[in-house]
Design a protein that fits this description.
With about 375 residues, the chain is mainly α. It has two domains: about 30 residues; about 230 residues, no CATH class. The chain contains 15 helices and two strands. Strands 1-2 form a two-stranded antiparallel sheet. A hairpin with a 2-residue loop joins strand 1 and strand 2.
Length: about 375
Amino acid sequence: ASLEGDARRRWNLIAGVIVVAAVAILPMFLGSLPNELLANVGLFLLMALGLNIVVGFAGLLDLGYVAFFAVGAYTTAVLTSPLSPKYTPMLTLDFLSIEGWIVVGAVLVVAVIAGIVVGTPVIKMRGDYLAIVTLGFGEIVRVLFLSDWLSPIFGGAQGIRQIPSAEFGPFQIKGTNPQSIFYLVAAFVGIAIYVSWRLLGSRTGRAWAALREDEKVAEAMGINTVASKLFAFVCGAILASLGGMVFAVKVGSVFPNSFELLVSVIVLVIVIVGGMGSIPGVVVGAFVLIGILGGPTQPGVLQEFAEYKLLIYGALLVFMMLRRPEGLWPSVRRQRELHQEEFLQDAWLKKQQEEAKVRLLEGGA
């Protein structure tokens, strides 16, 4: 068993080195369009990894996830843009300077507050009710950013423009340079994958699994369900807000109509099609859906089918729910949950066959 564990770790390390090398080298040989496509895939993957924590790990259906994405984008815009309506600190998002870390820290703090604000009222809700309430929160955030009441701070329908490029010391990360944006997105995606992987195998991850399977039993076993749910919302909010920060730098402006319900739905479809609770599954789902079909306004490889994009999304989702509900690359635990009856039936049949063999041997003797 120890040798198997060592071999698995060795192969995982080799695979990790190959992936990192490919991510670092491949964009240098690709044109601007493939890099732009990969950057879009990475941006939606970052959001999907956050939603996977909420939906896949903890089993909490969140349809207002785009609200956290908007919070991260607007926080970045207010702190960095010279055209911010009320507050113009005009900080530079330089990841090697104090100003840059102030921006990142502010995005994280606002994300945590947003996660607690959204998570607290829905603590006791499950299933359809939870989905409806979170959907309402997502729309409330978008309408608030759009409203005249908050337009002196967030610009209303005019949004906030002229968001400056990010920097990494002497290197500028311009939105007009898809390669540099891809490297920025890839760095955050790498962090998100590592955090998700560590959480999955931690005590918190096991608490989320128990919560997802049976909340009442989990509570009876001594798990603090309130804290576990809130932590899941906060983790998801942080990753989505970081995605919003990258989005603001990439596009150079933020408008309320960039954060519609459709974004939440597509991120959820990525998680479902890839495999809820499966980190590799979410990666596959992002490449299959965003890479091939494209996002809400982002083109994919099959640009010819752009007007049928949502139809294909819906058909694919229905097919997956009927034929492969565990996703394209499911986690072992999730697969067992969905096919528990089949596993039990196979075990029963195997036991019956073994008992029949024993009876035949005894009869022959």
